[in-house]
Fold this sequence. Notes:
The chain is α+β, with helices and mostly antiparallel strands and 153 residues long. Helix content is 14%, strand content 35%. It has a single domain, classed as Immunoglobulin-like (Sandwich). The protein is built from two helices and nine strands, in the order H-H-E-E-E-E-E-E-E-E-E. The chain starts with a helix and ends with a strand. 19% of the residues are buried. This is DUF4399 domain-containing protein. Keywords: Signal. It comes from Gaopeijia maritima.
Amino acid sequence: MVSRFFLLAASLTLVACSGEPAADEAESAAPPAPEAAEMVATVEILEPAQGDTVDGPAVTVRLATDGVRIVLAGDTTSGTGHHHLYLNDDLTPADQPVPTVPGSIIHMGDGSTEYTFEDVPAGEHRLIAVVGDGVHVPLQPWVVDTVTFTVRQ
């Protein structure tokens, strides 16, 4: 019995002194994991939601983002941008500043997350939200959301 104890103790001592880290030491000695993949920025049109029927002619749009901070136009800090809305209009080229078209393509350069379109006619409409940088160029990869909704009057 005593010899088994000494044999076990000697084995443990040999393992402990072998220069190989124990399992918990190996984890702490391992190089740090690579940085987590950068968070992909998203925008979501909260209102009107996909498929909603809303009373018009005024239509209020509410937006939320994740992974990008909404700031004033002109702020070119990395990780920031501001909203642009396209009502019944197509997206403009990715490398071009978003134009202004009254009632159709709206810049929300004041850092807001809510906008009200006035005089939206009854019927089905498509709304696209795009986050652009400080000089109105869409962020890359695109930070965009699209919904269709119906206005009743």
